[in-house]
Amino acid sequence: MGGKIKSWKKRWFVFDRLRRTLSYYVDKHETKLKGVIYFQAIEEVYYDHLRSAAKSPNPALTFCVKTHDRLYYVMAPSAEAMRIWMDVIVTGAEGYTQFLN
C-alpha cells in the first residue's frame, strides 16, 4: 500500500542479504526504484490479523513490515509466498544484528 496516497499498487520486491536491504520497484524489470527498506530499520514483521490495512484486496494475504519511520502493508500473491517473504525478511533483519556484535 502506498505511503502518501493510501492505495494499493503492485510492486516488485528484491531481498539483498549482502546490502542488507529490501528494495522495491515498479515492475520486475527493476528499472524504477521506488524505495529501500534497510534491515537495521526493521522493528517487526507480522501478519495483519487485525485487518488494519485499509481496503486490502486480500486481507488474508496481507502482512506488515514495521520500520522506525513507516509501517508497510504488503500483500503476497499466495499464502505460501507470504510465509516465505515474512520468514526471509525476519531472518534478514535478525541476521543484521549478528553483525553488530
TrEMBL record:
The keyword Coiled coil applies. PANTHER family: PLECKSTRIN HOMOLOGY-LIKE DOMAIN FAMILY B MEMBER 1, PLECKSTRIN HOMOLOGY-LIKE DOMAIN, FAMILY B, MEMBER 3. One of its GO terms (biological process) is regulation of microtubule cytoskeleton organization. Pfam families: PH. The lineage of its organism: Eukaryota, Metazoa, Chordata, Craniata, Vertebrata. It comes from the Eukaryota. Residues 1-94 form the PH domain. This is PH domain-containing protein.
